[in-house]
Amino acid sequence: MAALLAYYLDNFSPFLVKFGPNFGIRWYGFSYLLAFFCGFLLLRWLAQHRYCALAPAKVGDFILLASLGVVVGGRLGFVLFYRPGQILTDPLFVFRVWDGGMSSHGGMVGLTLVTFLYARQQRISWLSLADNIAVAAPVGLFLGRCANFINGELYGRAAQVAWAMQFPKEALDLPEIGAATLAAAHSVRPEIGGLDEIIEQARNDQGLQDVLHQTLTPRHPSQIYEALLEGAFLFGCLWFLRVRTRQPRGLLAGLFLLLYAFVRVIVEYFREPDAPLTGPFTRGQTLSVILIVGGICFVAYALRTKEYEAVRGGRRSG
């Protein structure tokens, strides 16, 4: 038990600001708002310096539409890829975005569709817009994974590494862990209710925290791995290529898809599967194959056409 008690218990409140028993500003929603704001700032800077064919004055309009594409695509992707059966038993589940449940792959599909339609309507290069969105997108991925960590969801596989953590939502997901947690909690607090109440009160109750330490499995903090790889690593690579090198239109969008798929496949080996496997592969790894195909197509097209941005400072499109 002494070894287990050394593991960090990830039991943050899902609310940034709470106005009532189950109402307030959630970290999950706040992370999306912050991601769109950061995307606006980055894309406007890129447009002002002519890295993007989009006019700076139109960045706000595009980000508004892009946010809609990400949210709708991410939610529909989650429902179709991870919870298709739940549509029949609980149709309103599709609209409860505030409860969490978004697919990054679905969000990319929604964003791609909005980007294509907007570029066509504005008569600007779709590849130019896609490249610059690809540069900004990892910031949103980073913030989203941080929100996953705060919510204690999408946790990793069982581990004995020194930085392993325990996630109370495991008791809600696994019946045997939930039953053990209920029994242990009732021995300490006989009057306490179900698992949701135990998890909620454990944030301020040392006795209940000790119960969770005893019953929960130490796991990889896979959300942190994803934030660093899908977010910080991808952003660093793509930002450097955007502002320090001269790349043909479409190449950065392709590299984003390829790099994201690569790091996602790696991280999935540390993340607890949240959907049935496809052979030996998780749902996230299977969906990443589509991104690899798309990334190769983008890169091949960019290298064949070799169209460049007219970047401020003397470089011209060719």
Write up what this structure looks like.
There is one protein chain. The chain has 318 residues and is mostly helical. Helix content is 63%, strand content 4%. It has two domains: 13-155 and 221-305, no CATH class; 166-215, no CATH class. The chain has 13 helices and four strands. The chain has a two-stranded parallel sheet. Strands 2-3 form a two-stranded antiparallel sheet.
Short description:
With 318 residues, the protein is mainly alpha-helical. It is built from 13 helices and four strands.
Mean pLDDT: 91
Number of β-strand runs: 4
Uncertain spans, ≥5 residues at pLDDT below 50?
Answer: 1-5, 313-318
Query: C-alpha Rg, in Å?
Result: 22 Å
Largest beta-sheet characterization: 2 strands, parallel
User: How many domain regions?
Assistant: 2
Query: How helix-rich are the residues, as a percent range?
Result: 55-70%
Estimated structural class: mainly alpha
Strand percentage lies at: under 5%
Principal-axis shape: elongated
What is the count of DSSP helices, taking H or I runs of 4+ residues? 13
N-to-C series of helices and strands: HEEEHHHHHEHHHHHHH
Output the strand order for the largest sheet. 1-4
Write the layout of secondary structure elements.
Elements: H1 2-5, E1 8-9, E2 15-20, E3 23-26, H2 27-48, H3 59-82, H4 86-89, H5 104-122, H6 126-151, E4 165-166, H7 169-173, H8 175-188, H9 195-202, H10 206-215, H11 222-244, H12 251-268, H13 283-305
Parallel strand pairs: 1-4
Antiparallel strand pairs: 2-3
Task: List its traits.
two-stranded parallel ribbon; mainly alpha; disordered C terminus; 318 residues; two-stranded antiparallel sheet; disordered N terminus
